């Protein structure tokens, strides 16, 4: 335990650990060291964000996907998935109702769907940018060429989310079909950063075959990339995928990784994810208490929400789900935090202060 605490202190003071140290810190954790970690994580969370939790309105606009990731419920081989695409009008309607609820940042997320050609996407981005000049527009559309990313950026998108999923090449191969590679994934992230996007990455906790060594590599990669946001959530098996019998990730390890991320990069945007809320009714609250500072309520029309089923039992898909905003407001209040709905462009002001 002594060594684990020392490693947490070293991480806090230098922001860097060796791969061996990361492995030890992850392997040798226990309840006591986790509590110590969460205290340090909350210290930095409070220092930079006080009790403010940022919101990003998520619009899941297509569940068609050309990829076949072994873990994902909307993979192309899942013939049971009921496919949908929102029309341009429906997407703009989501933005409009989100704006009315106070959201100033929209995340357009979808599978890799060729129906939305570059032209269609550019037109969509321009339309949203024109109608909502005061809002941040985030895209989450998977892997694209650098040129495509750049055009979308110049059309008005300012942020992009692309989880690296796992930084270990071999582990990546065990989660994806041969045409996908970890190297190409990471290349996309570097392109996004070069273009000037505020970039988010992330990984699943407890994905099949994941070891502490893989998690250590994830932390090293994130330290190198220095993204604005890191989304992590437990792997949750989906019944229509090759991983239907695999064990899911735990709340405990997910929270621990959130704490480590907060201490490593204290100004990071860290969502308490829907997957975490799915495996534990108080998962998102626990995520905040471990250092997270973002929630991403669903703004998709309730009629399609059940269809964007990346994993089993995903929350916020019922009729009550139009109320995500109020629900989260109350949940955050219950634990002494406050939902804020502005763009959350805090980083330029505090970058100087950040110890990284
Ligand atoms: N369990 C948890 N997360 C998943 N994702 C996809 N499938 C699953 C699953 N079965 C995550 C991936 C992806 C993000 C949109 O959702 O990390 O990047
Ligand atoms: Fe969606 Fe509670 S956050 S229903």
Keywords:
12% strand; single chain; 356 residues; alpha/beta; six-stranded parallel β-sheet; TIM Barrel; three-stranded parallel β-sheet; 15 helices; binds 5'-deoxyadenosine; binds FE2/S2 (inorganic) cluster
Can you offer a commentary on this structure?
By secondary structure, the protein is α/β, with parallel strands linked by helices. Helix content is 45%, strand content 12%. The chain is globular. Residues 348-356 have low confidence and may be disordered. FE2/S2 (inorganic) cluster is lined by residues 297, 316, 320-321, 323-324, 327-328. FE2/S2 (inorganic) cluster (FES) binds at residues 297, 316, 320-321, 323-324, 327-328.
Write the layout of secondary structure elements.
Blueprint: H1 2-14, H2 19-27, H3 31-49, E1 52-55, E2 57-62, H4 88-101, E3 105-110, H5 118-131, E4 136-140, H6 146-155, E5 159-161, H7 169-175, H8 182-195, E6 198-205, H9 212-225, E7 229-234, H10 251-264, H11 274-279, H12 283-289, E8 294-295, H13 302-305, H14 324-334, E9 338-340, H15 347-350
Parallel strand pairs: 1-8, 1-9, 2-3, 3-4, 4-5, 5-6, 6-7
Number of helices: 15
Low-pLDDT parts are: 348-356
Strand content: 5-15%
Radius of gyration: 19 Å
CATH class: Alpha Beta
Helix content: 40-55%
Instruction: Count the domains.
Output: 1
Query: What is the CATH fold-level name?
Result: TIM Barrel
CATH architecture descriptor name? Alpha-Beta Barrel
* Morphology: globular
Mean pLDDT: 95
Number of strands: 9
- Biggest sheet statistics: 6 strands, parallel
What are the distinct ligands in this entry? 5'-deoxyadenosine, FE2/S2 (inorganic) cluster
What are the secondary-structure elements, in order, as H or E? HHHEEHEHEHEHHEHEHHHEHHEH
Structural class: alpha/beta
The end-to-end span amounts to 26 Å
Strand order of the largest sheet: 2-3-4-5-6-7
């Amino acid at each position: 335990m002594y060594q684990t605490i020392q490693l947490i202190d070293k991480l806090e003071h230098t922001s860097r650990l060796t791969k061996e140290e990361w492995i030890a810190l992850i392997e040798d954790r226990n309840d006591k060291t986790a509590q110590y970690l969460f205290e340090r994580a909350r210290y930095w969370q409070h220092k930079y964000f006080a009790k403010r939790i940022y919101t990003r309105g998520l619009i899941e606009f297509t569940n068609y996907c050309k990829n076949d990731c072994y873990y994902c419920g909307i993979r192309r081989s899942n013939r049971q998935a009921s496919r949908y695409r929102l029309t341009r009008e429906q997407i703009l309607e989501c933005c409009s109702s989100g704006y009315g609820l106070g959201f100033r940042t929209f995340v357009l997320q979808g599978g890799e769907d060729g129906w939305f050609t570059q032209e269609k996407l550019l037109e969509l981005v321009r339309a949203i940018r024109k109608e909502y000049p005061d809002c941040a527009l985030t895209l989450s559309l998977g892997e694209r060429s650098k040129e495509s990313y750049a055009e979308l950026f110049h059309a008005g998108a300012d942020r992009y989310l692309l989880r690296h999923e796992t930084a270990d090449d071999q582990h990546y191969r065990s989660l994806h079909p041969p045409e996908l590679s970890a190297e190409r994934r990471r290349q996309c992230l570097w392109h996004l950063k070069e273009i000037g996007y505020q970039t988010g990455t992330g990984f699943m906790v407890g994905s099949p075959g994941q070891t502490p060594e893989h998690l250590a590599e994830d932390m090293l990669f994130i330290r190198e990339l220095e993204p604005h946001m890191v989304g992590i959530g437990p792997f949750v098996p989906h019944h229509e995928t090759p991983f239907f019998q695999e064990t899911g990730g735990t709340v405990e390890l997910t929270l621990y990784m959130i704490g480590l991320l907060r201490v490593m990069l204290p100004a990071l945007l860290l969502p308490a994810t829907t997957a975490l809320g799915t495996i534990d009714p108080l998962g998102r609250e626990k995520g905040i208490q471990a250092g997270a500072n973002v929630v991403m309520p669903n703004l998709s029309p309730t009629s399609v929400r059940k269809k964007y089923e990346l994993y089993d039992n995903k929350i916020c898909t019922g009729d009550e789900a139009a109320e995500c905003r109020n629900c989260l407001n109350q949940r955050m209040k219950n634990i002494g935090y406050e939902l804020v709905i502005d763009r959350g462009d805090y980083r330029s002001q505090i970058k100087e202060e950040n110890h990284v």
